[in-house]
Amino acid sequence: MSHATGQKYLKQDSLPLMWCSGCGNGVVLGALLRAFEEMGFKKNETVVVTGIGCWGKADDYITTNALHTTHGRALPFATGIKAANPRLNVVVLMGDGDSVTIGGNHFVHAARRNIDLTAIVVNNYNYGMTGGQFSATTPKDSYTSTTAYGNPERDLDICALADVAGANYVARSTVYHGYDLQNHIKEAIARKGFSVVEAVSPCPTHFGRNNKMKVSVEMLKWLKEKGVSREKYLQLESPEQKGYFVIGKLVDRDAPDFSACYEKIRVRALVV
């Protein structure tokens, strides 16, 4: 068990956190800051890029360099930072709306380029900050403020999308599995190329309340039950229909990242 606290990366004068009681964002933030500490990150060599939304407010509490960007556009801003200065550690914090709903096109191309960024995606299955509307990850038949009779659309699998688009590292965890989440974040940051860690998180204020989980403890129990290993998932009968999902490391490749490929082009151009 880690003894890192991550306190030196936390803005104490910005506390308490603005998130709702029972929200999992604080758990993910703690895992990220402890990962920074364990990896010995220097604040002036680290940039945290955020978009808009509940999880997008995380930069308010972090003492590293930070850039708060527009909705769905965190990845192109982060891509520019990394391309301009490949020596920086660049971590992108997005919700399910920022990453694969409004920002879906940028997500695909960041993975395709294999740009050396780490995307920490908090998936709470809805737009929590703006009233609980459904997003691309809202499970089919679930209830939200804009799907009062059930969501007719199929949900998008963030990790599967990252895999087929070319990400080097992909993992999924939940805020119930906090230490596993922290380890996945560390592995993702250490891996060259585009890395994605999906953190499935409770939103008791909206998604939970609309889906018979009004109390955050009920949502945590749900995450504990439904998040299973790949081996267990394959043994279950109709797991997708019953709401089960795979947690753990899902992709671990070592393809050259964008900066390495670009440097070869740059050197070739200088020779000419």
UniProtKB/TrEMBL annotation:
Q: Supply the InterPro entries for this chain.
A: 2-oxoacid:Fd_oxidoreductase, THDP-binding, TPP_enzyme_TPP-bd
- State a single Gene Ontology molecular function: oxidoreductase activity, acting on the aldehyde or oxo group of donors, iron-sulfur protein as acceptor
Give all residue intervals belonging to the Thiamine pyrophosphate enzyme TPP-binding domain. Answer: 58-198
The record's CDD domains line, in alphabetical order, gives: TPP_OGFOR (cd03375)
Pfam families, A to Z: TPP_enzyme_C
Report TM segments.
Answer: none
- Protein keywords: Oxidoreductase
Query: One GO biological process from the UniProt record?
Result: cellular respiration
Origin: domain of life = Bacteria
Please name the PANTHER family in this protein's record: 2-OXOGLUTARATE OXIDOREDUCTASE SUBUNIT KORB-RELATED, 2-OXOGLUTARATE SYNTHASE SUBUNIT KORB
* Protein name, per record: 2-oxoglutarate oxidoreductase beta subunit
Give the organism, scientific name.
Desulfocucumis palustris
